[in-house]
Automatic annotation (TrEMBL):
Organism listed in the record: Granulosicoccus antarcticus IMCC3135
Protein name according to UniProt: PBP domain-containing protein
Top-rank lineage group of the source organism: Bacteria
Single GO MF descriptor: DNA binding
Start and end residues of each Helix-turn-helix domain: 8-56
InterPro entries: HTH_17, PBP_domain, SinI_DNA-bd
Amino acid sequence: MNLSDDPYLTTRELAELLRIKERKVYDMATHGDVPCVRVVGKLLFPRSEIMQWIAASRSGPQANGAPMVLPPTVLGSHDPLLDWALRESGSALAAFMDGSADGLRRMAVNEGVACGTHLHEADGWNVNTVSEQFEHQPVVLVEFAKRVRGLIVAAGNPLQLSDVASLAGHRVARRQDNAASQQLFEHLLGKAEMTNDAVQMVEDCARTEDELGMQVFDGRVDAAFGLASVASRLRLEFVPLLEERFDLLVWRQAWFEPAFQHLLTFMQSEAFRNKAASLGGYDISSLGKVHFNGR
């Protein structure tokens, strides 16, 4: 077994890791300041717990040992209600929304304060992916809203589209490859025993939920795998297929900063609730529910 694979550190190894004397390690263990176990009189330090213990000392993303000033930007997947709230709240937070996967990648390298995500997983939404990528990071994953997603089609549904299987041979809007909705749509095609070639996926990539709806509105596609709120605003027909959960992954440091607190306060307002109701297809009853809390 390689040293790096050993689940336990010795006193000497921990002292080397922390750049302190072994005597200091013994003192910390005696006073209960560091995770440890004592086996046949010998001190051992669980490697995974030590790494969590070290990470817990961080108040936010760090560079060269110092807390970073994060760009005041919300990353990740586009959501019409969140996009509106960022503008109306006066939080001064900007948005760079280019898909859940892109947002998580940018969050990992400290390019924003929060990330919107709706990644479909075998047993739910977002949690497994976030816990794998941010397990030892000071982040929190909170619910923003549940959203109804399905087929946006022309007013009156002239082609009588009813489910994914009915899309065979028809023109369908496409999101960028790293968009969670595109990945979910391709998953649903597979469940319907269809390949991507079974539908006419257009080349013009829609970068936002609103662009998806506009492609249907303009007659460039027959259907789009989009949100009920977008169909309602454009007065298009909508065929509901599922309810998804849209979460916000937030650096704990940023959560308590004035800009994000301003946004949180606004999301508790009557104006926000009224907007969610008027858009349609949103359930904000669990807004703020914590689904993952990093170390």
